[in-house]
Amino acid sequence: MKLYCLSGHPTLPCNVLKFKSTTIMLDCGLDMTSTLNFLPLPLVQSPRLSNLPGWSLKDGNAFLDKTELIDLSTVDVILISNYHCMMALPYITEHTGFTGTVYATEPTVQIGRLLMEELVNFIERVPKAQSASLWKNKDIQRLLPSPLKDAVEVSTWRRCYTMQEVNSALSKIQLVGYSQKIELFGAVQVTPLSSGYALGSSNWIIQSHYEKVSYVSGSSLLTTHPQPMDQASLKNSDVLVLTGLTQIPTANPDGMVGEFCSNLALTVRNGGNVLVPCYPSGVIYDLLECLYQYIDSAGLSNIPFYFISPVANSSLEFSQIFAEWLCHNKQTKVYLPEPPFPHAELIQTNKLKHYPSLHGDFSSDFRQPCVVFTGHPSLRFGDVVHFMELWGKSSLNTVIFTEPDFSYLEALAPYQPLAMKCIYCPIDTRLNFIQVSKLLKEVQPLHVVCPEQYTQPPPAQSHRMDLMIDCQPPAMSYRRAEVLALPFKRRYEKIEIMPELADSLVPMEIKPGISLATVSAVLHTKDNKHVLQPPPRPTQPTGGKKRKRASDDIPDCKVLKPLLSGSIPVEQFVQALEKHGFSDIKVEDTAKGHIVLLQEAETLIQIEEDSTHIICDNDEMLRVRLRDLVLKFLQKF
Amino acid sequence: MDPECSQLLPALCSVLADPRQPVADDTCLEKLLDWFKTITEAGSSLLLLQENPCLLGLLCHVLKPQDLSPRVLSFSLRLAGMLAAQEDCFQYLQGDSSLFVASAAGQLLVHILGLSLQGPAEGHPGLQTGDWPVCAQKIVSHIEESLRSAATPQITQALNVLTTTFGHCHDPWTQVLWGRLSPLVACLLEKDPVPAAHSLVDLLLSVARSPVLSSSSSGLWETLAQTLSHLSPTQAGPLALGILKLQECPQVLRAQAFAVLLQPLTCVLEATAQAPGLLDSLDGTGGASVTVDTLLPSKAACVGLLCRTLAHLELLQPLPQRPSPWPQAPLLGATVTILRLCSGSATPTSDAGGHLCAFLVGCVRVQRAALDFLGTLSQGTGPRELVTQVFAVLLEYLTSPDSSPTVLKKAFQATFRWLQSSPETPGCSDLDPHAHLFLRELLPVLPKRLCSPCWEVRDSGLEFLTQMIGRWGGQAGFRRALLASEVPELTEQLLRDPESYVRASAVAAMGQLSSQGLRVTPASPEHPGGQQKSLLAELLHILSTDSEGFPRRAVMHVFTQWLRDGHADVAGDTERFVARVLQVASQDLDWEVRAQGLELALVFLEQTLGRPSSHCPYAVTPPVAAPPSSLAQALRPLCRVQLFEFAFRALFDCDRPVAQKSCDLLLFLRAQTASYGGPQGSGSVPEVASVEAALQRWQAGDQGQPLGYLEPEVVVAVLRSMDLEGLRGALAESSDRVEKSPQSLLQDVLATVGALGEDEADCY
């Protein structure tokens, strides 16, 4: 069993598991931090950006892809944990010769589609006149200004995919529900479990009859909108692959939400605008819910909230229809019937308005001071670029970063100097290390495998021993482009016995509750299922090639020696020897059993747990005598 | 006992003795005991038993093994003990599985032992226990047997009996008893682990506190020293604290106890490799240094021990007998380090420190305990550098989004205490420059806290603000900083907070801001034409419309303070203000608001009559006009604001404190009017009669009819004709005296039992 680690990003994992005869890809996250090396794509021509000296606006955005560690066309299935971890899917399904199936839950697919659609839309609506790629040449890259010249593996950066590629990739997905058992080639069974992190987010169990691998990706134990995490089903795993922990282990989401609300209120009260760069789904639902409860108490009822995204409308509506994937509280609301999320009421009362882009209706409705939620959190493309340019000059305004995926300082770099206030309130509801240690205590896997970042404290806080996985035995760590042999051997395989064969068996009880029987059969293996079938009846050899060959196949049943079982009690054995005239017997204890020495006869009898050896010098008579004495203590059948 | 109760008693006893009729509420059993206690104290227990044989029946009945509830058993035992105080004729039970019964039985033993040794005949029991009465000897050998037992519960009971004995009785015979039993107690220390350590500590402290036992140095101090070194750190803490609290105690033992108490903090300092100077002074107190791994091995142990240690030191700090020299600097250093470990900002330099950090990060319990102790430490001084660290760590907590609401509250409290104790600049009562700098950093944090979505945070932020303004509102530096911030404006917005506690705190804060002239004047360019309501109008609005009591009470407090201080908004037209407030307050459903209305009325009355208040020695002298020349003239303003109508209504208030307060006010007023001489004019007798008739109706519960404007003469006449003293006497009796009567109690118990039966019937 091997694990190929294609991503070094712990929250955007991409691993391939070879288990029995299957090749399973676990997630395909897309690390977009390389976009931070590019200039923002402005919606309207920005003289400031285009006049920056020494920079060029010519290249399209590119994304980091994986190294070729494994031939991706050999991947049988891809299991997706949540919509953030499927953003690289088109690169894999469309360009690698992949012919397998992708499994994901319905909300994952639908919201994943929204995220991809938004991404493609953001990039495509500002088309490039030309693109350049010569700079990817190492010799030229070396001449570029920092940090570009320090960027690694730029050759693997890719252009953004198209909508056709997205649609084609998504068409390969098969929808699954929580706890649904999916057979893969009869060899293994995979099951998605609720992971509590996002709508439809899953952890996966990959198991055969005797082995169980759990794959834990982004999971949360906090009570937010999704169904709570299913921990119990992770118990008794041989290996637990643990990825997708919180990216900000020192920030408590509750505290951060408080910080978010307070800063928002302070800015708006002073007549400033608030910009929240965010993804169109996920934490935004929780933020809107918090604000719903907060705005009245903070006297903000008259402040408009704008949500601008090409998929804003779908995102808000989708969230309301996935009732079965929501936490219990929200589910019960559906039966009242009420919309599970209060943002429906915010929309009804005109407090929250959503627009596909800042062009069109928005420009006529736009009223300040206001709060704007829009993408992309990298500040490199999407409507957020415009708002940064618009509001950046006034210190009354505030940009509040809530998504933890990008360094906010790097994101802000091209906008400097900036007068607007910047607040960093990363809200990451995924597991923190305390929760992980509780989880591991609870589910007790035999082995834990995780990205190497989780096995030591973060570099910036090397003294925080609490910010790492602490388990026994210590977790096995992996890094990008590594192949890990998972630390357990398969020992058993399940084999079925045909009824007629089973009928013919004559079990013999060798000790109470345990019976044995010898089986002569043909082992038939097909589709990873093993069946014992009755041997063909021996037919009279009547000559002819065909028959002869058939009789060759018949196992040789006639020369069967009886099978032995039981153990030899040394003291009684020695007594028996004495009775049969042997004297001068010495018994030595060894690590594995005993050695009985017959000094006179210069003979050794080695008795071990699973073998007995009689060593004597060319005295076959003596050996047979001794053998018969040994056999008296064993059962035969 | 009155005959009515005697009649009810047999029924009660049979109910109690019947396990099928459970007594639902054991508070009534407590009340019964209280009642029996008053009876036995007043008369003979024997007579009580003879007159009420049912009691004896009950006591005999409970001694039979049966399925009786522990409540009734405990009640009976305690009753028996109470009666035994005179009769000395009851058996005892001990070792019952019920904690209550065991404790009652233990107490009974103590009583019997005490009684048997101070019986009238003996006078002075012998110095040998052999000379003691048989009963006492039996008890002593029972205790000895228990102390030798291998079962911890038995040892615990024996120790508890001794603790109670030595705690209550300081007769010379206790010395004999301790002399005989102390070797057995010392033997317990040789066991590992020490059994019943908690009870053992209690016993030893009880012995050490007993003047008879501690003076006769019978190895007590050695035993205490030995115990300190044998017990686990967690168990030794309470003992160490107890020793340090003793008035008389050898210095060596005190040093040892203090070292034990300080051990966990020494560990913290060691693990984080603090400046050696700090360590030395903690270490120098004599204890052997212990490593973190042994003292603070697991998270639970570490958190528990640190919390207890901090709490113990907090108790010790203000005591006169606290160890001297008090290691203020190392304690400050350790507390700051703990707080920084909890917030994750400390950088431990050793493995042990790393473990400690992992245990403590984000631990709210330790944070609370440490902040409490840090606040207490503000009473002493510290090196400049450490004080800087204190303010830095406080600021860190006040700023951090991860501080939980309770931690934040404690951080605010500690901050105020430290600011309060920071040295004042000579010749000026303003904050010292150091604290000023701190304040400049703190003030930007406060607005964020006032906007928190968590109401507890908004509330504690406002409380802190109110305290700060109260203390430094007059100081130029503070005023400048505050006015430059958004705090005053935000505070005003919080008057409309959805949470009533926050509104109440905002009312108090606004009252302070306004008193100090710190309320931001409106009509800024951003609010064109924004004719802001006056604060007085806004508070009056809250008083008359707020649905919760807390904000309304807060408004009344602010108004009273404003009136007392001669606040500008009030001084303009005081009469109108008082009239309006009293009118609204009289209709309030909350009795505290009405009571506070009387307080305000009293202030007004004192100001009007020109007498400085005797009730409020700290009040600013109000700007009073020269005393009016005639009584009528003096009373006229009171009549105009309808103060009398308010006070008379309050006199018959259904809430006793309001009525009492009103009665006091009217009595005070009558005394004042007396000083103006005899009645003036007597032509208004019919009016007096009609007022009196109205008051009688009010007293009868019909408060509908208003009195209208009353002439001063009528008021004086009514006041003089009323039996205010009698009323005060009646009010002084507890209003629930009827409900508290034993007869009602007995009826209640029986009724509950009856009701239980009825409920059962209902079920079918």
Automatic annotation (TrEMBL), chain A:
Residues 284-412 form the Beta-Casp domain. One of its GO terms (biological process) is negative regulation of transmembrane receptor protein serine/threonine kinase signaling pathway. One of its GO terms (cellular component) is integrator complex. Keywords: Cytoplasm, Nucleus. Residues 527-552 are annotated as: Disordered. It is found in: Cytoplasm; Nucleus. PANTHER family: INTEGRATOR COMPLEX SUBUNIT 9. Belongs to the metallo-beta-lactamase superfamily. RNA-metabolizing metallo-beta-lactamase-like family. INTS9 subfamily. Component of the Integrator complex, composed of core subunits INTS1, INTS2, INTS3, INTS4, INTS5, INTS6, INTS7, INTS8, INTS9/RC74, INTS10, INTS11/CPSF3L, INTS12, INTS13, INTS14 and INTS15. The core complex associates with protein phosphatase 2A subunits PPP2CA and PPP2R1A, to form the Integrator-PP2A (INTAC) complex. INTS9 is part of the RNA endonuclease subcomplex, composed of INTS4, INTS9, INTS11 and inositol hexakisphosphate (InsP6). Interacts with WDR73; interaction is required for the assembly of the RNA endonuclease subcomplex in the cytoplasm. Component of the integrator complex, a multiprotein complex that terminates RNA polymerase II (Pol II) transcription in the promoter-proximal region of genes. This is Integrator complex subunit 9. It comes from Lynx pardinus.
